[in-house]
């Protein structure tokens, strides 16, 4: 007797196998998408900070950047008080930044030579889950030092320069 087709049992087994594979792929897709957002946000912020630093150097005027949770504003001078409008603002971040020392906002200032004016190196960490948990991305942090800005990977659950492997 010749068989011309598939039995109902064979078709159901194939459908179940496809369903299992799709559920695994969906779980992996979500974590991969989160990893991509973290890396993208760190890279874009790094690029923006480098641009502000270069702008301060080439125009010979100090520039300031204010981080406030998930927002980012660039000022064309060190004047950042109330009533002063930023030169530009970036769209809100998908995930908030955390920084060493905490606080609700952070001002990063580059002097007329393009050098960071802070006393110590400044860590900025992307915090996708609100607890500074370990992320799967290859970069999730930025370290701002006097003459350099570097991307890095956080090695623990704190946003300290010592916990970030700079790249």
Automatic annotation (TrEMBL):
TM ranges: 6-27
Pfam hit, one: N_methyl
InterPro entries for the chain: N_methyl_site, Pilin-like
SUPFAM superfamilies: Pili subunits
Assigned keywords, A-Z: Membrane, Transmembrane, Transmembrane helix
NCBIfam families per record: IV_pilin_GFxxxE
Name of the protein in its database record: Prepilin-type N-terminal cleavage/methylation domain-containing protein
Source species: Geomonas limicola
Lineage: Bacteria, Pseudomonadati, Thermodesulfobacteriota, Desulfuromonadia, Geobacterales
């Amino acid at each position: 007797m010749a068989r011309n087709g598939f039995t109902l049992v064979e078709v159901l087994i194939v459908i179940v196998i496809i369903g299992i594979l799709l559920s695994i792929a969906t779980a992996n897709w979500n974590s991969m998408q989160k990893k991509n957002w973290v890396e993208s946000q760190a890279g874009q912020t790094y690029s923006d900070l480098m641009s502000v630093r270069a702008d301060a150097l080439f125009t010979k005027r100090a520039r300031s950047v204010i981080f406030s949770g998930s927002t980012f504003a660039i000022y064309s001078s060190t004047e950042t008080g109330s009533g002063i409008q930023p030169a530009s603002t970036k769209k809100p971040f998908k995930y908030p930044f955390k920084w060493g020392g905490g606080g609700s906002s952070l001002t990063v200032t580059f002097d007329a030579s393009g050098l960071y004016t802070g006393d110590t190196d400044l860590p900025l960490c992307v915090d996708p889950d609100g607890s500074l948990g370990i992320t799967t991305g290859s970069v999730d942090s930025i370290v701002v030092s006097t003459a350099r800005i570097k991307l890095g990977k956080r090695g623990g659950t704190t946003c300290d320069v010592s916990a970030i492997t700079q790249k």
